[in-house]
Amino acid sequence: MLGCTIAALANLASAQSTDSSGAAAPAAGTTSSGATAGSTAGSTTSGSTDPFVQRREENKQAKDEYKQKTKAAKEDYKAAKKAAKEDYKAAKKESRSELKASGATSAATQRMDGREMESSGK
C-alpha cells in the first residue's frame, strides 16, 4: 500500500514536471504503474489516473469553454444591438429632418396642436 502511494506521488511529480517543461513528455516513457506518458495526454495538468478526478477536470474544461462561448455570443449580441439602435436613431433623425424640410407636420404634432379635432368637427 505504501509502495502504491509512493508510485502515485512519483507519477504525479513526473507529470507535473513534464507539463511544465513541455519537451520532456516524449522522453518520460513508461511509469512504474505501467501507464505510458501518452495515455495521460488527454487529461488536464494533474495527470491523475482516478476517473472521478479526470471527469471533474473534463467537466471544468467544458464549463470554461461554454462560458467563453456564451460571453463571446453576448458581446456580439450587444454590439449588434448597439449598431441597430444607432441605425434606428439615424433613420429617425433623417426622417424628421425631411419632414421639417417639406413643411409638413406629423400626425402626432397635429393631434397635439388640436388640428385633427377641429377638422373632424369635434
Automatic annotation (TrEMBL):
Secretion signal: which residues? 1-15
Q: Where is this region: Disordered?
A: 15-122
Which ranges are annotated Low complexity under compositional bias?
17-51
**What ranges does the record list as Basic and acidic residues composition bias?**
53-99, 112-122
Keyword annotations for this protein, in alphabetical order, are: Signal
Official protein name in the record: Uncharacterized protein
Species name:
Noviherbaspirillum autotrophicum
